[in-house]
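Form P-L/3: holo structure prediction, ligand adenosine monophosphate.
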Amino acid sequence: MKNFILFGPPGAGKGTQAKTISKTYGLVHLSTGDMLREAKDDPMFAPYMSAGKLVPDNVIVEMVVKRLKKPDCSEGFLLDGFPRTLSQAQELDKFLTKENKKVSAVFCILTENEEIVKRLSGRRVCPACGGSFNIDSMPPKKEGICDLCGANLIQRKDDNPDTIRERLSVYDKQTKVLIDYYEKQGILAKIDGMLTPEKVFEQISDYVKKM
Ligand code: AMP
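OUTPUT (holo model):
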């Protein structure tokens, strides 16, 4: 069974890789950011998200555990954006142990901060189909229009310079510790995230082949 975690700072390319990984290995893609955004402007989440802060652990753990209990996750899953704190990782392990499961690999996508700021400020997303573009590196064919479904592209509320800075600092202070946590478990795969999406995926699939 393949139970994967995609790990890395915001803007590392987790969403792009998640699409390829889940398709290639037939895994359910669980992005906590997407799950929270689907809840639209729920007063419980919105203030944290627009400030670039983390939603409280108990709220997010409950949401993920509930989702992981669904039958479609029994053949494997790909977590994207979760866990983001030590407590979330410990709660996930507790739940999986109870279910007789475990995390098989954590793909840690490493990128430089300067590149992240560039990627996030240029990111444009499609609210209709989830397509993601970048005005510098991957512009849509027609400005402001999704290549995949023709809807108008938007800029995420949290992709502005102040919030990007806050999200990076949250990653450094609360999330980065997990590299050590999973390295100690021997399941961390360090991936160079500065390369093209194809090359990034190649590193992931090479690791999976060797598992
Ligand atoms: P993302 O789409 O992964 O960049 O997440 C967007 C925002 O959703 C984050 O900045 C947080 O406010 C919230 N969020 C997503 N995943 C988590 C998580 N595992 N724990 C706490 N907050 C989260």
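COMMENT: The chain has a mean pLDDT of 94.
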